[in-house]
C-alpha cells in the first residue's frame, strides 16, 4: 500500500483537503470530498483511506455517515474493502488520461467552467503570494519541492494531471487558511474535469513546467509579488487554451 502523497514529512495534503462538513447533506458532502481527493490524486491508486474514526473526526460527521459514503465510493468502483492486516478501504480509481475528442459540455456546464477560470485568476495567485509571504518551515519547503518533483517525474498524462493538481494544492495547504484551501480545491477539481476534455500538448506542458518552477522558487525565496505575477500568467495561459478549445 502507498501512503498519501507528501506525508513523509511536513503537511499531509489529505489532512488539509478533507474539511468539516457543513449543512444537512452530510452523506453527499462526504462523498464529494472523498471522491474529489481521490480524483485529484490526494489519495492515489493503491493507497488506503484513513480509518473511519479518523475520517469522521476530520469531516465532523458520524462514523455511520462515513461508512455510507465509503460504500457509495465502493459501488462507484473508486475503492475496495480489504480484510486482514493492512486492510481497509483501498483506492482502486485509475486516473483517466486527457482525450483528443470529447463530448461537448452542455451550455450550463460550460458557463460554470468559464466562471471557474475567472475565479481561479483571483484565488490561486493570491494563494501563492500568501505562501511566499510566510516564514515557511523546513518541512513545508521540502513538501513544496517534492510536489514540484512529482510533477516533473510523473509518467504518463494521467499521472501528470494528478501531480499537477497536488502541486497547486500544496501551496494552498501551507497558507494554513481553510478558506484558501477550500477555494483552491474546488477550482482544481473543476479544472481537472476541463483539462480531461482536451488533448495534451507537449509545448503547453513544457511551458507549464517552466512556470511551475518559477512559482516554486518565488515562494521559496519569499517573493510574493513575483509568485503572484507568474501564477497569474500561468492561469491566463491555461484559460486561453481551454477557452479556445472548449468555448
Strand order of the largest sheet: 1-2
Average pLDDT, all residues: 89
Number of strands: 2
CATH superfamily of the largest domain: GntR ligand-binding domain-like
Look at the helices and sheets and give the structural class: mainly alpha
Number of domains: 2
CATH architecture designation of the largest domain: Up-down Bundle
Largest sheet: 2 strands, antiparallel
What's the gyration radius in Å? 18 Å
Please report the number of helical segments.
Answer: 10
How far apart are the first and last residues' alpha carbons, in Å?
A: 41 Å
Indicate the proportion of strand residues.
under 5%
Oligomeric description of these chains: single chain
Shape: globular
CATH topology of the largest domain: Four Helix Bundle (Hemerythrin (Met), subunit A)
What would CATH call the class of the largest domain?
Mainly Alpha
Topology:
Elements: H1 13-17, H2 26-39, H3 52-59, H4 63-75, E1 79-82, E2 88-91, H5 107-132, H6 138-153, H7 157-175, H8 178-195, H9 202-220, H10 224-246
Antiparallel strand pairs: 1-2
Helix pairs in contact: 2-4, 3-4, 5-7, 5-8, 5-9, 5-10, 6-7, 6-9, 7-8, 9-10
Characteristics:
247 residues, mainly alpha, Arc Repressor Mutant, subunit A, Four Helix Bundle (Hemerythrin (Met), subunit A), 2 domains, two-stranded antiparallel ribbon, 2 strands, 3% strand, globular, disordered N terminus
Description of the molecule:
The structure is a single chain. By secondary structure, the protein is mainly α. It has two domains: 13-91, Arc Repressor Mutant, subunit A, CATH 1.10.10.10; 107-246, Up-down Bundle (Four Helix Bundle (Hemerythrin (Met), subunit A)), CATH 1.20.120.530. Helix content is 65%, strand content 3%. The chain has helices at 13-17, 26-39, 52-59, 63-75, 107-132, 138-153, 157-175, 178-195, 202-220, 224-246; strands spanning 79-82, 88-91. A two-stranded antiparallel ribbon has the order 1-2. Strand 1 and strand 2 (88-91) form a beta hairpin. The N and C termini lie far apart (41 Å). Residues 1-10 have low confidence and may be disordered.
Amino acid at each position: 500500500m502507498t501512503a498519501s502523497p507528501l506525508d513523509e514529512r511536513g503537511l499531509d495534503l489529505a489532512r488539509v483537503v478533507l474539511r468539516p462538513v457543513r449543512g444537512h447533506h452530510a452523506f453527499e458532502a462526504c462523498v464529494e470530498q472523498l471522491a474529489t481527493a481521490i480524483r485529484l490524486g490526494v489519495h492515489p491508486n493503491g493507497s488506503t483511506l484513513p480509518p473511519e474514526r479518523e475520517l469522521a473526526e476530520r469531516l465532523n460527521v458520524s462514523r455511520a455517515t462515513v461508512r455510507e459514503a465509503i460504500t457509495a465510493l465502493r459501488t462507484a468502483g473508486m475503492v475496495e474493502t480489504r480484510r486482514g492486516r493492512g486492510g481497509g478501504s483501498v483506492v482502486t480509481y485509475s486516473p483517466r488520461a486527457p482525450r483528443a475528442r470529447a463530448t461537448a459540455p452542455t451550455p450550463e456546464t460550460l458557463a460554470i467552467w468559464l466562471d471557474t477560470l475567472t475565479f481561479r485568476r483571483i484565488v490561486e495567485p493570491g494563494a501563492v503570494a500568501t505562501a511566499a509571504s510566510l516564514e515557511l518551515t523546513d518541512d513545508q519547503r521540502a513538501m513544496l519541492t517534492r510536489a514540484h518533483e512529482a510533477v516533473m517525474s510523473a509518467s504518463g498524462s494521467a499521472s501528470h494531471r494528478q501531480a499537477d493538481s497536488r502541486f497547486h494544492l500544496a501551496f494552498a495547504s501551507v497558507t494554513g487558511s481553510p478558506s484558501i484551501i477550500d477555494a483552491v480545491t474546488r477550482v482544481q477539481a473543476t479544472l481537472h474535469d476541463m483539462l480531461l476534455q482536451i488533448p495534451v500538448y507537449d509545448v503547453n506542458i513544457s511551458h507549464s513546467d517552466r512556470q511551475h518552477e518559477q512559482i516554486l522558487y518565488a515562494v521559496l525565496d519569499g517573493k510574493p509579488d513575483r509568485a503572484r505575477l507568474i501564477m497569474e500568467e500561468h492561469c491566463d495561459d491555461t484559460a486561453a487554451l481551454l477557452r479556445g478549445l472548449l468555448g
